[in-house]
Amino acid sequence: MLIRMTGFGSTLGAFLAGAAVAIGGVLAGGSDEPRSRTALVIDASAGRDGDQLVDGRLRGADAEVRLPRSSTEASTDVRYFAAQGYRVIVAGPLATAAARATGVDAVQATSLSGALAAAR
User: Between 98 and which of 75, 86, 115, 118 could a Cys-Cys bridge form, CB atoms 3.0 to 4.6 Å apart?
Assistant: First the structure.
């Protein structure tokens, strides 16, 4: 039974391609300033726009967005993002109560517009 061997040229080519990608990643690096990550936890009822499940303004937000439907979901979302080091912004009675109950130092907004403004 014969075993087919890969030629030296294709092995060298793959190695060089991998090295180029690695060097490019190192040289591209990133910003010297760590970018703070933001999370919006907004009650589902406040994050809707009429018959749309998600308000269109949330799609353009530069933040992670969660729309909890219950106090349990709100508490889980707030604790998760706080544990991950996110700056948490809450809006709505469920999300605000969850932040208070869990002891998370969250920014409290009175409305969806206020939450989006705080996220900027």
Answer: 75
Phi, psi of 12 (to 5 degrees): -65, -40
Instruction: Delimit the domains of the chain by residue range.
Output: 38-119
Environment class of residue 67 by beta-carbon count within 10 Å: exposed (0-12), middle (13-18) or buried (19+)? Answer: buried
Beta carbons within 8 Å of 75's beta carbon, 6+ residues apart: 98, 101, 102
Q: 0.85 exceeded by the pTM?
A: no
From 90, 92, 117, select the one nearest 105 (Cα to Cα): 90
> What pLDDT, in 10s, does the model give residues 47-99?
766 556 676 778 778 888 898 999 999 999 999 999 999 999 999 999 999 99
Could you give the CA distance from residue 29 to residue 40 in angstroms, rounded to a whole number?
Answer: 28
CATH number of 38-119: 3.40.50
